[in-house]
Amino acid sequence: MKKNNIENEYYIEMDILTRLNTVQGAYFWKCEYPSLFIPNQIQRFRKQKHPYIPNGIADIVGVFRGRMVAFEVKKVAEWKYVVKHYETLKNQLYSKNKKHKHLAEQIRFVENIIAGGGKAGFVCNYEQCVRILNA
Questions:
Q1: Are 99 and 67 in contact (CB under 8 A)?
Q2: 128 Cβ contact list (under 8 Å, min separation 6)
Q3: Distance of alpha carbon 36 from alpha carbon 68, whole angstroms
Q4: Is 61 left (phi over 0), alpha (psi -120 to 50) or beta?
């Protein structure tokens, strides 16, 4: 990966996805949150509200050797922030701070995958994904 792209989440995701999909028994994809287009409104795209579309869904989702896997990709600085404040952040689901609330939703998604027998975590590079897969 080029050095100037290392802090761009898109390029981190692409590097991870490209490398993960070369691993035997792995199938991964970029997970996008569905949006609803609303014409003639200032905010034209809005997240769809649906009881079975969870908030905080991971950036990369897939299957590895028959198990569900989810990776929430962060830039290095944000990854360090999440790791340092993980326990505090996970209790911020009802916070007025939008960033903390969103991170709490992502933590809940990751923990639900793990509780269901899958593998999941916050990552900022391919090597961290490999550690989670091999844990």
A1: no
A2: 121
A3: 27
A4: beta
The answer to whether 108 touches 92, Cβ cutoff 8 Å, is no
Condensed to tens digits (0 to 9), the pLDDT of residues 27-67 reads 999 987 655 555 666 555 556 677 777 888 999 999 999 99
pTM: 0.84
CA distance 46 to 109: 21
> Length of the chain in residues, anyone?
135
Beta strand ranges found along the chain (DSSP E): 26-30, 35-37, 45-47, 60-64, 67-73, 119-123
Q: Is residue 82 exposed (0-12), middle (13-18) or buried (19+ Cβ within 10 Å)?
A: middle
- Bridge partners (DSSP) listed for residue 37: 45
